[in-house]
Every structure is written in C-alpha cells, then in structure tokens.
Amino acid sequence: MSAKKGLNLTLKIWRQKNNKSKGQFETYKISDVSTESSFLEMLDMLNENMINAGQEPIAFDHDCREGICGMCSLYINGRAHGPDTGITTCQLHMRMFKDGETIHIEPWRSAAFPVIKDLVVDRSSFDRVMAAGGFISVNTSGNTLDANAIPVRKEDADKAMDAAACIGCGACVATCKNGSAMLFVGAKVSQYALLPQGRVEAQRRVLNMVKAMDEEGFGNCSNTGACEVECPKGISLEVIARMNREYMSANLDRG
Ligand code: SF4
Ligand code: FES
Question: Which candidate among 75, 173, 193, 234 keeps its CA 20 to 30 Å from the CA of 157?
C-alpha cells in the first residue's frame, strides 16, 4: 500500500525589502505538505528549503502559535487569517487547502500598519492607542480595596470578559475597507467601561483612546461588519456601539 502523499502547492507570496521599497508577489512551489501541518509550519518548511538553497527566507510574524498572542497576521487568499473562521493564522491547518491549489499570501494592508518586511507589519499604532487609555489606575499605597469586594453584575462581567478576549491581532483593521480600528478600540473601551473599577477613568479613557486612534490614521466605521466576521475572537459590533455611547456622553459632560 503506497503512503498518502501530501499537498503540492503554488504560493504567491508578497515580498518587500522594507517600508521604502516597492513590493511584489513572488511565486514559490512546495511539495508534499502534510494536511496535518499548520499554515505556519508549511511556511517554516518553505523557509527551510529556501535557506538550504541559499535564498533569503520569508519574514512573517508569529509567537505563541496557540491563538493567544495576536502576532500572526496573514492575509490568505483575500481573507484575514485565511479561509477558516474564528481562528488565527497560527491555528489554520493545511487540510483547508486542496492539492494543486495556488495560495496568495499578503501582509495586513492598512496605512496605520506599514510593512516592515515581506509579511511583517508594524502594529505599534495599537500600542500607542493602548497607552492613551487602555489601563486602570490603582492606589497601591496599602489601602487598596480587594477587587472581589466590589460586586459586579454577572451579565456585565460576562460582557467585559468577552471584550477582553481581543488579542490585538489587527485583522479587523486589515479587513475593513476603511482601515478602521473601531472593533479593537471598542473592545478595549468596553472591557473597562463595563466594570466598576474601569468607571473611574471611563470618560478620560474613551476621549483619549479615540483621539489616539484618529491620530494614528485609522479610518472611520461605516457599519459594513467585515471586522466582526473576520475577528478570530468573536468580538461583536456591540463594542463599537458601546464605545460610541461612551464617547458621546463623555463629550456632553465635557460641554
Ligand atoms: S477585535 Fe478581533 S480582529 Fe480586532 S484586534 Fe481584537 S481580536 Fe483582532
Ligand atoms: S502566533 Fe500567537 S496568536 Fe498566532
């Protein structure tokens, strides 16, 4: 009985030296890829072949490879994180592809995420939005109130946890025709706004985070909902509505 052969694939991969240079698709062939392997393992295989052939390997982002860190960020066949739903690129398996298929692999496309090299983009704009308000200030002088001493409604705790599932991958921005970051910022604003500990700085937080978001060059939301569809963590558009309400009320109070 003959052993089952793996997939033979043609890969069209975006190569770009740096942010200043123009990029282009390059074509690569890879054979005998196991359907059990992950998409990133397939790229590891390709890179190993390229290194052995004396070629420059393809730069791509990854870290945990467990859907936790939000580092992996590939646009695969026209979809953020590829053809499966509710997963990150590192959780995508090669069984989703057919033998003989051509796969297009691109970096996230957004003015606020400039390409560093090949498939790696600079997402530090997200870090700056977080630094503008994605935290709570706690008095650590020794009089700190135990967090468990503050009652939180179950429904609010659940919604805050759902919002906190955002891993900051940026798929929402990459998939949005406007390059909007409102699903990401809405998740971060909601995660705190729903809890009593987050209410203290809620108004300042939403004003500062929205200001930082605009300054970073992210676009506006036009309610197409592509972000919600491609989000690997199921963040709901509800967080954008909550952020808009928080923002309006903070602006009214400011006068
Ligand atoms: S909202 Fe979803 S798609 Fe956007 S950064 Fe968070 S996890 Fe990624
Ligand atoms: S590598 Fe961490 S989420 Fe994919």
Answer: 173
Q: 186 CB under 6 A from ligand 1?
A: no
pLDDT higher than 90, residue 9: yes
Q: Which of 39, 44, 63, when mutated, tests ligand 2's pocket best, judged by the most ligand atoms within 8 Å of its CB?
A: 63
Shared domain check, 105 and 21: yes
Residue ID of nearest Cα to ligand 1 atom 7: 166
Identify the three-state secondary structure at position 119.
coil
Strand locations in the chain, DSSP E? 7-15, 24-33, 75-76, 79-80, 102-106, 115-117, 120-121
Dist. CA 42–CA 250, nearest whole Å: 48
Residues 108 and 142 in one domain: no
Q: What is the pTM of this model?
A: 0.94
Task: Examine the domain organization and report whether 51 and 143 are in the same domain.
Answer: no
